Amino acid sequence: MTVPESFFQKTYDELLEEFKLNNFPAYGAEQVYAWVYKHFVFDMKSWTNVSKAVKAYLQERYSFDLPKVLWHGQSLDGTRKFLFGLNDGQSIETVLIPARDRFTLCVSSQVGCAIGCRFCHTGTMGFKRNLEASEVIGQLMAVTTMFNTKITNVVYMGQGEPLHNFENMKQATLILMAERGLALGQRKITLSTSGLVPQIERLSEFPPVNVAISLHAAHNNIRSELMPINKAYDLERLLQAIRGIPLKAHRFITYEYILIEGLNDRLEDANALIELLDKKNSKVNIIPFNEYPDSAFKRPSKEKTLWFQNLLNARGLVCTTRMTKGSDILAACGQLKSEAEKLNLWI
Description:
It contains 11 helices and 14 strands. By secondary structure, the chain is an alpha/beta fold. The chain has 2 domains: 5-63, DNA polymerase, domain 1 (Orthogonal Bundle); 68-343, Alpha-Beta Barrel (TIM Barrel), CATH 3.20.20.70.
C-alpha cells in the first residue's frame, strides 16, 4: 500500500497545477489552501465549499497528519519547548518564544547537525537526516493548532544547518510565504547559517528572507576552534560570499556572536570585529553563551556583555544583545538536543 504524501509538502502553485491537470476548477485549490493554512481545519467534512470529488481525490493521495508531540514544557519566562516525534522514530525540538507584539517559532531543519560547533548542544547528536519541507511546516502547524496561537515570525535557528538542507528549506519557505496560505512576509522569516559558502553563493535562488550569519569570532584561529566549518570556509572566503547576498528583504546582514568568557570577549576581539564588518550593512547580535550539561565554556557576566556591546556601538557597529529565553528548560540558543529515546517518550 502506497503511503500518502504529506499535504504540507505542497506549495500553492504546485497544488494549483495539480488541480488543473485533474480538471478541477482553479478556485478549488484556493479554497483547500485556505481551509488548511488560514483556518487550520484538516477534517474535510468541515470544508463546506469544497466539492465531494476534490475531497475524495485529496483523501486518497494526501495525509494531513502532524508531528506527534512527545513532550512539551514551559519556561518561567513563558517560552515553550516541544519535542516532536517523526514517522521514522526520529525526534526534533521546536521553541515558541512569546513577546509583547509577536510569537516567534524557532524551527529545526535537520535531525541532529553535521557542523559540530563546540558551543552547541545539538552538535553532540551528530547528523541523522534532513527534514522534509512538510516536517518543517508541520512544526508550525502543530504548535498553532495546539495553542490556537498565530505565529508571526519564524526563525530557522533550531536543530540543524538550514543551508545543508537547501531544497527542502526553500520549499518550506515558499509554503510559509504563500499569500493564499500562511502569508508570512519576507521580513518575518530569518535563515541562520553557520557559513556554508557554496550554499550562501546560491541564495539568489532562495526566497528573499532575512539572513543571519553565525560568526562568533573575528579571528580565524578562534572561529576554527569553535566551528570546524571555518577550516573549510575561513573568514575571508565567508565574507566574500556574504557580499554577494542580494539585500532584498532586509537592510543588513545580522551577525550572531556567541560571547564566551575568556575566549572571544576581549578588547582585541571587539577591535577585530569592528575592522572585519561593513558598518553600513551589518548588525551584530550578541548572544551570551547558554550553558548546558557538560558544556566546555562559561557564560560571561552581564557587565562584560554590556561592555562589549557598548564598545561596538561606540565604534559605529549596530549591536544588540539577545535576551535569553527558556534556559531553565534548555530551550535557549545552542541548548536544543532531541533525547526521545533517553526519556522513553515514544509510545
